[in-house]
Design brief:
Layout (H helix, E strand, L loop, with lengths): L7 H8 L1 H8 L2 H8 L4 H18 L23 H12 L11 H14 L3 H16 L2 H12 L18 H14 L4 H30 L10
Helix pairs in contact: 1-10, 2-10, 4-5, 4-6, 4-10, 6-10, 7-10
Amino acid sequence: MHAPTAPFSEQLRDGTRGVHQETESAPFVGALMSGAVDARGYAALLGQLHHVYSALEDPHAAVVQDPVLAPFQSAALHRCAALAADLRALLGDDWQGLCPPLPATLRYRDRIAEVAAHWPGGFVAHHYTRYLGDLSGGQALRVAVQRHLDLPDGVGTSFFVFEAIDSPKRFKDHYRRALDTAPWDDEERERIVAEARRAFVHNGELFADLWQHLAGQPSAEVVLP
């Protein structure tokens, strides 16, 4: 007698646990949580993330119209506008010219665009990795940034604020139910878990690239406009 198959949301969580923990242990993340990253470094992170979310929120992506994605699509999750507002507050109106994508960011962005062109399940893997992370561990980053960078109230941290989601827990429960009921067979589920692991690797490479980039730059304080 076969044991019952675990809900897919549990398979996805368990199948990415190791690489998730490894990504959270990146030197850049530890430095940000401990206050060793200054406002310039924090702004650099937001600039790289804007490239990533631009790919996730591309309205022209082919998979956007796929009915399988409908339960996961919510404008309440979108982060590009919040990131742009934060970057404008930290760097001024010319922030885009100050935030070119690093090589790891380009690879990450291009992979999202690739799956967004033809593979709904793969797109969900990246969607899940970023947005549920923002609603969960991302909130601890918000507390750390506010504590260590001493930013004026609300300045530079709107990325972490989901104003249209009144209960992150209920939203995440709804999202996990959508994962559990999506019409994917066992083989497709395995492919999606593998892609989610790849998404975490991309995040880790982004952190590593950013850490190296910042280490090679002279320290400079971000002056709020």
